[in-house]
Amino acid sequence: MSEDVDAVVADTFRQDWGVVVATLIRMTGDWDLAEECAQDAFAQALSRWPGDGVPRRPGAWIVTAARNRAVDKLRRRSVETAKLREIAAAGDPARAPAGESGDATDGSGIADDRLRLLFTCCHPALSLEARVALTLRTLAGLSTAEIARACLVSEATMAKRLVRAKGKIRNAGIPYRVPSADLLPARTPGVLAVLYLLFNEGYAATAGAYRIRTDLCSEAIRLARLLAQLMPDEPEALGLLALMLLHDARRGARIDEAGRLVTLEDQDRTRWRRGEIDEGIAVLEPALDRGDVGPYQLQALIAACHATADTAADTDWAGIARLYRRLMDVTPSPVVALNHAVAVAMSDGPAAGLALIERLETDGRLADYHLLPATRADLLRRLGRHPEAAVAYRSAIELADTDPVRDYLIRRLAEVT
């Protein structure tokens, strides 16, 4: 019974953390209090549900418990009596429809606390790095360590970044609302970056027993749809939504029945969801007609090349390599350079890709990124240089953070030893 409750609580956390925190921030205006009370509510669920039974609506139970905890804490602060009256007048958020936590009061017409939270976190007064980190923490419930890995910085650096971001919102009095139309462009880059990383963390979790977190993928797509509705003339918002849909269409084929990772080359393409692929392409086409092609549109074009190839052998790797070259010009990044090296290897041969990998190893920025030695190992394996491949696979295994990835690399290591 305890194991069942633990699983339900964990599932509820993944699905509803953002709802709970966003609701409490709207009510209290206190970010730290919101996170603290949300954590208390989940701890309360772990202690009470084994005896009382799991409630019919676990997420609503958590919201109510967190709200009550916040009221108790504010009641002990004598200076917060006005805030208490405001909370009492707001009503019980547990009765709100699924996906909403209250009525829109900011004139945006978007009745979604999580979207408000997203735009609040992405205020231009914050650095782009702070916007990304704060939203992944408050909206997605990612740990500081998970966010640090996603952003390729140390955990200590990320912890300081989060503290500074919250302090700046509090001290600057940044409002909790979707901004007016004329202010949207200033926040667009941060919002897009957050949704992109949120989806990536779900599609390829940076730690834990699971390679895919469907809850994060679904939440990122849901928010991307809302953003596209809010900004229908923003091509990069459409490009990001298309990118997510094209990747998500392949999600079910990435893990086999035994829970093992399946690479793109070996996936059963009949398991790809054609409806999502068609929708992604339909979203992308009008975005490409609007002028300069940005990084999310370029990535969506790359995803479309994969999604529309009938077999792995039919993939237009030369075209993908050219698109990655353009992406490197728009967004210089060692991760993009790594993907470009893979495309070159598939187009021009493993030796050509390996030369680019060696440049990235000299660069040093991906020293702790498991995909760098894993890619080197794969190219060496294809060249028949098995002893060198084994060394690279062992390095990748040491850096891997998820069980499916580690298992995949161990199986590859066995092939070359």
Task: Please provide a written account of the structure.
The chain has helices at 2-28, 31-52, 58-75, 81-90, 113-121, 128-138, 144-151, 155-172, 184-203, 214-230, 235-248, 274-288, 295-307, 317-330, 334-348, 350-363, 371-382, 386-399, 403-416. With 417 residues, the chain is mainly α. Among the domains are: 2-97; 338-417, Serine Threonine Protein Phosphatase 5, Tetratricopeptide repeat (Alpha Horseshoe). Helix 11 (235-248) packs parallel to helix 13. The chain is globular.
Give the helix/strand class. mainly alpha
β-sheet strand percentage: under 5%
What is the percent of helical residues? 55-70%
Number of helices: 19
Strand element count: 0
Report Rg. 23 Å
Write the layout of secondary structure elements.
Blueprint: H1 2-28, H2 31-52, H3 58-75, H4 81-90, H5 113-121, H6 128-138, H7 144-151, H8 155-172, H9 184-203, H10 214-230, H11 235-248, H12 274-288, H13 295-307, H14 317-330, H15 334-348, H16 350-363, H17 371-382, H18 386-399, H19 403-416
Helix pairs in contact: 1-2, 1-3, 1-5, 2-3, 6-7, 6-8, 6-9, 7-8, 9-10, 9-11, 10-11, 11-12, 11-13, 12-13, 13-14, 14-15, 15-16, 16-17, 17-18, 18-19
Which keywords apply here?
mainly alpha; Serine Threonine Protein Phosphatase 5, Tetratricopeptide repeat; 68% helix; 417 residues; globular
Quick structural gist:
68% of the residues lie in helices and 0% in strands.
